[in-house]
Specification:
The chain is about 15% helix and about 25% strand. It has helices at about 5-10, 105-110, 115-120, 155-170, 230-235, 275-280, 385-390, and strands at about 40, 85-95, 130-140, 180-185, 200-210, 210-220, 290-295, 295-305, 320-325, 330-335, 350-355, 365-370, 400, 405-415, 420-425. The strands form 3 sheets. A 6-stranded mixed sheet has the order 1-5-6-4-2-3, with helices on both faces. It has a 5-stranded mixed sheet with strand order 7-9-10-11-12, with no helix packed on it. Strands 8-15-14-13 form a 4-stranded antiparallel sheet, with no helix packed on it. It is elongated and about 65 Å long.
Length: about 425
């Protein structure tokens, strides 16, 4: 601002809502924890160790201290890594100036199981987000308008909102039981701005009942909410950057960097499956799924569709990305995108090219899609950025990056739905 895809998991979830039954009560008994919650908020970096470290693979990149760096050599331990099952909790906050017109269960149904399903597909079933929903609205002490909720939120008012939210939840919730916490404001309250949904990072971890909280997902959505909005925000919880560009003018284009490609660009995108680079960072792809081009010459590759199930028998023959390292903190990436899985509504198919910079912070262009058809666009009226909707290369097409001396030539499709690819590096 997330997919389980497994019928067994769906059967285990609560009927009608998609919520997995809690292994412990969502609300704790009152009186177990109390204390003054002092909140310092920051939207900026929470970088961990590893700045300017050497990358551990020839074609990976080092992690820098910039916010949400896309370096792969180390993991920022301030963030949970979704290479295992994680538990999320969703709480609902009401205000004295409005009576909620929808139940928490109904509101939660807009987000789950869809968000968990999204991540289940993106991770090839390797990651499951088990979400639990609070059954009741929890009243806030002040009217919604008193918090000044908006996209560019005044720090003092944002701190007041989070301080009050943690105070009313503190006696009720065992925060230590959860990896991800969603705070959902009553969408009908007059002071709730539907453009204000975001992850808020704390400058210092906040101790609540013995649990250290580093960030919260604050949800201020209309009903129904924006498509994939919670998958986008949850991506930030896993240290993924914003891939959109915030324009200077109020009517500028937000989607010039990646268009429809990857949910971290736009929650409305037609092809929201995370880039292969993101999947590599999160642990869903490994170096075995990556062909590395680190020297001049001609190399041949066979790309399997990024969204297809992984081959458990021959991962080394199951190439999902080709990476050309072009600098200390820069690489070019090629991957095959097809209308499957999270990309079922994709406008076009083919070999998608993009540039990754690990020294560029969130929302300033860490990823830029390379337009394979700069003179045309596609899916006008549906695409968030039609110019990039037809960016992938089809069979027989090529792309020449003169500045970096790299040429990509797409061959015939494979029998498994991918493409053959030749790379010429000067």
């Amino acid at each position: 601002m997330g997919h389980m895809g497994h019928e067994q998991e769906r059967r285990e979830n609560r009927s009608g809502t998609g919520w997995r039954r809690a292994r412990r009560p969502l609300y704790r008994r009152p009186g177990l924890v109390i204390g003054c919650v002092s909140v310092l908020i920051g939207a900026g970096s929470m970088a961990g160790p590893g700045e300017n470290a050497r990358a551990d693979e020839p074609c990976s990149l080092p992690r820098h201290s910039v916010h949400h760096s896309l370096g792969l050599d180390t993991w920022n331990e301030h963030y949970p890594r979704p290479d295992r099952d994680l538990r999320a909790a969703m709480f609902f906050l009401s205000f004295p100036d409005a009576e909620p017109s929808v139940t928490p269960e109904a509101l939660a149904g807009h987000y789950f199981p869809a968000t968990a399903d999204f991540f289940g597909r993106a991770s090839y079933g390797q990651f499951r987000l088990h979400a639990e929903v609070a059954p009741d609205w929890v009243p806030m002490p002040r009217e919604s308008a008193a918090y000044g909720i908006r996209r560019d939120w005044a720090p003092e008012q944002r701190s007041a909102y989070l301080r009050d939210a943690l105070r009313v939840l503190e006696p009720l919730v065992d925060f230590a039981a959860y990896d991800v916490i969603y705070l959902v404001a009553d969408p009908g309250a007059p002071g709730v701005d539907a453009d204000a949904t975001k992850v808020v990072n704390f400058d210092r971890p906040v101790s609540v009942g013995g649990a250290e909280i580093r960030r919260l997902v604050t949800v201020f959505e209309q009903t129904p909410p924006d498509r994939n909005v919670l998958a986008h925000e949850t991506g930030h919880v896993f240290d993924l950057p914003d891939l959109y560009r915030r324009p200077d003018a109020s009517n500028g284009d937000w989607d010039t960097h990646v268009g429809d490609w990857d949910v971290m660009g736009s929650q409305f995108g037609l092809a929201p499956d995370p880039f292969g680079w993101h999947k590599w960072k999160l642990g869903w792809l490994t170096a075995e799924h990556v062909d590395c081009v680190s020297a001049p010459g001609v190399t041949l590759h066979t790309l399997q569709p990024l969204g297809a199930p992984l081959d458990p028998v021959d991962p080394e023959g199951d190439t999902r990305m080709v990476v050309v390292r072009t600098g200390p903190s820069e690489a070019l990436v090629a991957e095959a995108r097809t209308a499957t899985g999270n990309d079922a509504d994709a406008c076009s198919e083919g070999v998608l090219l993009y540039r990754v910079r690990s020294d560029v912070p969130s929302a300033q262009g860490p990823v830029e899609v390379l337009d394979g058809h700069p003179g045309t666009g596609a899916c006008h009226g549906r695409s968030v950025h039609p110019r990039l909707a037809d960016a992938p290369l089809a069979a027989g097409e090529s792309y020449w990056d003169a500045e970096r001396g790299v040429r990509f030539e797409v061959g015939e499709p494979t029998s498994t739905g991918g493409w053959h690819l030749k790379i010429v590096r000067h």
